[in-house]
Amino acid sequence: MRLPAAAAVTLFLVLALPPVRHALEASMTAQMLVQLPLLAAVGYLLGRAIPARLGAALADWNYRGITGIVLASLAGAYWMLPRLLDASVTEPAVAALKFVSVPLLVGLPLAQSWSRSSFVVRGVFVLELLASLFRLGWLYLISPVRLCNIYLLDDQQRLGQGLIAIGAILFLWIAARLLWGRFDPTRYAGERPGGGCSSLITNPPGRP
Amino acid sequence: MSALRTSIASAALVLAGAAFLAGATDGFRAFTSEAARRVAVHGRPVAVPTVALETEAGDRISLAELRGKWLLVDFIYTGCRTLCLSLGSDFARLEHELAEPIASGRVRLLSISFDSSNDSPRELGAYLERYRRRGTGWHAARPTDEAGLVELKRSFGVTVVPDGLGGYVHNAAIHLVDPQGRIVEILDPGATDRIVESLRRFGVT
Q1: Taking CB atoms and an 8 Å cutoff, what residues of chain A touch B14?
Q2: Among A69, A81, B57, B168, which residue carries the largest CB count within 10 Å?
Q3: What does pTM read for this prediction?
């Protein structure tokens, strides 16, 4: 088995272990900031392990990775619903849906689509991700009522702070890349197929 | 060609996503579990289980014995100093506003404790005292066994979480139970006039 596939399976099994699952679902913050991202990471690793042929077969339907990124965004938004966070802890069927859909409908399509996507597609995705982080973070921070019945209000507010902090870090990182990274299409166009701009976000500065 | 196919695939995904979202939120009406249980009883009233209870007077009753009357049920614990305060004063006000249907035996108020180990009949009686219960139209009770409590919480959709300070956090609401023993409406604490209004709509007052 190739390394990403082995890592994906191991990570998935660890997350599915009852004590690990219980610990990560004991707080709203851990479920949203640790469990869900790690489940998406399982799918991402899985996507890296899939033979390129398969991705190429679907490429016609996934121009510049748009379809995959739309799928990941929609499925990701679905798991932001407070109602589903509650239900995924109390109802086994919803828990199963979470453990299957987050890897396969969020992480995997992202892995298959990110490298195909253009600067604009990535920009739209990252902007929407940033907006969601701030929107949700603000909502959780100021909401006087508990949005999840199984979690406490201070947990919800901590999650709000966490989301805003992650949004701020992501924003600063993107801003730094835009200012100092290798992204300017007018300077790098023609340097590599598709234009140098597509290296934004995935490649560290100074390394094309 | 691939741009067209991608547009079709993405549009189909957006439509499917919207349909899923509509399904998961009861048609965009309930984004939280608390809203969901309110919407759910509107569409399909939930039968109340026949759980054995011990009242503040020490009487053993079954929830089934209360069928035939309209019940207003809330869930409390007597050690609560937050939400239950508002639930307690709501019930005190309702006991006053619904004095007539209560006197004629059509309506009963019932506060069920989910902290059965602490809330003995004495504690439950003190709770009613604290809110100056007037007559016998308002009872406080605790389930006699753990299984009954679990069953009650499940059917009413009540979630109780320890707050880490020795108390509990719970979703506070007033549940309207019809004479057939079905939860037909779930209302916010503080909305006593809406409860009176609901009872009027159901033809009780």
Answers
A1: 70, 74
A2: A69
A3: 0.82
Whether chain B has a CB inside 8 Å of the CB on A93: the answer is no
Regarding an ipTM greater than 0.90, the answer is no
Chain A hits for B36, Cβ within 8 Å: 83
Contact A84, A78 (CB under 8 A): yes
What are the sequence ranges of the domains in chain A? 1-117, 118-181
For testing contact with chain A, the best of B33, B160, B188 (most A CBs within 10 A): B33
The span from the CA of B65 to the CA of B51, in Å, is 10
| Minimal C-alpha gap between B177 and chain A (Å) | 22
Which residues of B, range 97-136, sit inside 8 Å of A by Cβ?
none
State the virtual CA torsion across B93, B99, B104, B108 in degrees, nearest 10: 10
Inter-chain residue contact A146 with B169, CB threshold 8 Å = yes
**Inter-chain CB proximity A63 and B24 less than 8 Å:** no
Q: Buried b / exposed e across A36-72, counting CB within 10 Å, b at 16+?
A: bebbbbbbbbbbbbeeeeebeeebebbbbbbbbbbbb
Q: From the options 3.30.300.30, 3.30.930.10, 3.30.1520.10, 3.40.30.10, give the CATH code of B45-201.
A: 3.40.30.10
Q: What is the pLDDT of residues B66-103, one digit of tens each?
A: 888 999 999 999 988 777 778 888 999 999 888 899 98
Which two tokens mark A147?
A: 């949005």
- Strand, helix or coil at A162? helix
Q: What angle do CA A120, A126, A131 make, to 5 degrees?
A: 125
